[in-house]
Amino acid sequence: MKVEKTYRFIQAFYFFSFFGFGALFPLLSVFLEEEKGLSHTQIGMVIAALPIITIFIQPLWGMLSDYTRRPRILLMVAASSASLLGLFYPALQLFPVLLAGIAIIAIFQAGIVPLSDSLSLSFSQSHRKQYGNIRLWGAVGFAIAVFIVGRVTEETGSLSWIFYFFSIGLLFSLITLFQFPKRADEVTVSFRTGLTTLLQQKPFLLFLVSNFLVFGPILANNYYFGTFILTVGGTLSGVGLAFLLAAGSEAPFMKISQLIIDRLGVITVVITGSAVSAGRWLLYYFDPSTTVVYLTTIAQGLSVGLYIPAALILVRELAPKEVRATAVGLYSAVGNGIGNAFFTFMGGFLIDVWNVNGMYGFFSIMSMIGIVLVLVVQRWTKPEVKELIS
């Protein structure tokens, strides 16, 4: 009974924390443009600060966790600090101050996902629970938040609500942490040793590049999809509906992801998810109607809902057992950090010099290159590993 209770509280944490993320990130670019008057290049710089800070700060949160052996306490600090800082952000003015403000929020927000993933992965493996059944509640929370906040901002005429709901979501997530496991798995090798070992694994490194090219555009889309919806004639409520369909469709696919992976193989699922993303971005390049855009949002379930769990499994299989924790951390830094930052900045730049459709054309080409690299990974893997991932 205690295990089941903890399991439900972990699911609730993902719901509320991703509710906060869903309230903020999809409409952040619209907020910076309409309420703060920034150019798209400036918007790209502000938004890119989130993943750039993540690259450098996430390892520090990890080292603090390893040193203190108190990841749950650190998670409380990260969530409460980000929640409090979010309340003050709408009052900021001028580009340099807005950039600095989002960077400070990112310092604490960057610790939430890796610390919670470390605890939840450790718990799910120890008690034979599926991580996908935990992570899907994040997709549900994200989807519901965008839908609600889209309606609220349109009714009130104020986009500042995105920060208030962000803070509320993280505040509620704090309540669930009291039932979280106190510790994650012990670290068996140092980060430097693990990194040295992984740099010798060519298939693993090549998949990191693929993940950079495929997952970077997926994350950048979270920031610019609202702008795209408004460009094709949608409304703020329409943005909420689109994200409800997109993020909400991830949950059922995450629920059955392990069954599909077991049936088709990890590599096939990774390629399928990547191909759906590439096709979706290519469609957006050709300026589809609002109706078509809404209909294609559910493709995100097939792409993201299957790609995330399959990619995580592939990373673990490509890395030697003794450095898997380091491998997951490096994978997160490259995709969620470097890839997110690069494509977010490039997205804002391309919207300014070209248009939002051109940005999606660029995303599609990069994703296609990422698919080719996965095929090379499959060819380069050792026979015993290939048997596990094919």
UniProtKB/TrEMBL annotation:
Compartmental location: Cell membrane
GO MF annotations in UniProt: cytidine transmembrane transporter activity; uridine transmembrane transporter activity
Domain of life: Bacteria
Ranges where the Major facilitator superfamily (MFS) profile domain occurs: 6-382
One Pfam family, short name: MFS_1_like
Coiled-coil region(s): none
Major localization class: membrane
Transmembrane segments: 12-31, 43-61, 73-91, 97-115, 136-153, 159-180, 201-219, 225-248, 260-286, 292-315, 327-351, 357-377
GO cellular component, one term: plasma membrane
Protein topology in the membrane: Multi-pass membrane protein
Alphabetical keyword list: Cell membrane, Membrane, Transmembrane, Transmembrane helix, Transport
Name of the protein in question: Transporter YwbF
Record organism: Halobacillus andaensis
Lineage per the UniProt record: Bacteria, Bacillati, Bacillota, Bacilli, Bacillales
Gene, per the UniProt record: ywbF
